[in-house]
Amino acid sequence: EDQVTQSPEALRLQEGESSSLNCSYTVSGLRGLFWYRQDPGKGPEFLFTLYSAGEEKEKERLKATLTKKESFLHITAPKPEDSATYLCAVPGTGNQFYFGTGTSLTVIP
Amino acid sequence: ETGVTQTPRHLVMGMTNKKSLKCEQHLGHNAMYWYKQSAKKPLELMFVYSLEERVENNSVPSRFSPECPNSSHLFLHLHTLQPEDSALYLCASSQQGAPGQPQHFGDGTRLSIL
Fold first, then answer.
1. What's the rounded Cα separation, in Å, for the pair A101 and A43?
2. Residue A51: its chain B contacts at CB < 8 A?
3. Which of B89, B107, B109, B111 to mutate to test the interface with A (most CBs of A within 10 A)?
């Protein structure tokens, strides 16, 4: 069964304290893995697409990496404005998309 | 206007009311989606329209009725909803046909059923 699991559920970091979020997936024939950021009261905002194992993408303090079974979102020296819920998703069979439940990140000044 | 726009942003309705949610995309995409987002649960895909034809209906109760009059507009018609239908309803669009294209989301309609 296709599915996506994210961990941890919640993460509190001091400003400048680097860490990583995990997204594990099981899907037949990966056609991309997507990372999104969601702020309270807003819709998910697209961050990255990763297509193949070994691929990396960077944007400011965020770097996403992909293996055959999981993806990591590394946050380097985070700032309070990085606080948000981070979601990952994979396309399934047909027109399905599977999202994880997200990691709620809080960065404390 | 750019991106994906949803109206209204908030909606409170009784169980016997009829209302509609509206979504408009300005990205030139050919597919549109309705999702339900509830606390502590993953986004649930409800409906998919590709080139204005419904291609996915994930066992959604008939009290939710989608409509896609053209590739830029999507509606979700609501009637006789239940309290458990209270949630954030998100619209998204994407360009199908190219592999692995991401979806782009609106900011949602927060629906509360009294």
1. 14
2. 100
3. B107
What is the rounded end-to-end Cα distance, in angstroms, of chain B?
A: 33
Residue at A93: amino acid letter: T
Q: Among residues B38, B45, B60, which one has the least CA distance to residue B103?
A: B45
DSSP string over B17-68? -EEEEEEEE-S--SEEEEEEE-TTS--EEEEEEETTEEEEE-S--TTEEEEE
- Could you tell me if A99 lies within 8 Å of chain B, comparing CB atoms? yes
What does the pLDDT look like over A91-101, one tens digit per residue?
Answer: 888 778 899 99
B23 touches A: beta carbon within 8 Å: no
Q: Which of B31, B41, B105 faces A43 most closely, judged by CB atoms?
A: B105
Structure tokens at B92: 């998204």
Any A CB within 8 A of B83 CB? no
State whether residue A66 sits within 8 Å of chain B by CB: no
What whole-number distance in Å separates Cα of residue A103 and Cα of residue A94?
27
Mean pLDDT of B75-104: 90
**For position B16, what pLDDT does the model report?**
86
Tell me which residue in A51, A97, A98 faces B103 most closely, judged by beta carbons: A97
Strand pairing of B109-113 and B10-13? parallel
